[in-house]
Task: structure prediction
Amino acid sequence: MCNRILTKSLLAFAAVVTLLLSSLLAQDLPQPADDSFEVEPPLLILPSEVGREANAPPDVATLVQRLARAKKSAASGERLVKSGVLAKTEAEQRALRAIRLESELANAQVLAAQAQVALQETRSAAHQASQSDLDAALEALARASAAAQTAGENYHKAQLDAAALNLRRQRQLLALGSGHRSDVARAEEKLDRLQRGDAPPQ
Result:
């Protein structure tokens, strides 16, 4: 008799616990609005903003970090080539990337200097800045522009050197029977475009 009462009590307790858990789960789990299954996540950026985000240049601080990593990678690339771990062409690409980032950083610094000049001009017009503040901003812009021009010339020369070296290699491979005429033609076209100042896309 006691066993039967105990069994009924346990069954009743289990039923109560099951009902409570079902109620809690029904409240915690949101019900889907429909039966469709969303494969792609919703866009966080409106389509009209995609172009602006993609075309937005990186800021100076970001480029400083990228350049530091690129220089470190280029330095390690030279050591890896000497130890036979890395191909020479890969090390050359690392070095070229560092030079490219130097040019990009210099251009970003010009934009920052231009923004500073515009700010000082606005403040000067509102009598919130002195002429010396504006002159200092203009001098900083002149220095940044000169540095950007030098960095751009260095990058262009590095591209020319890399394209000429690649053309020599492609011709050597073709002479040895390991290359293709199409590769030589592409290398010639790239060098020609760089010499004309019409740089191919990176």
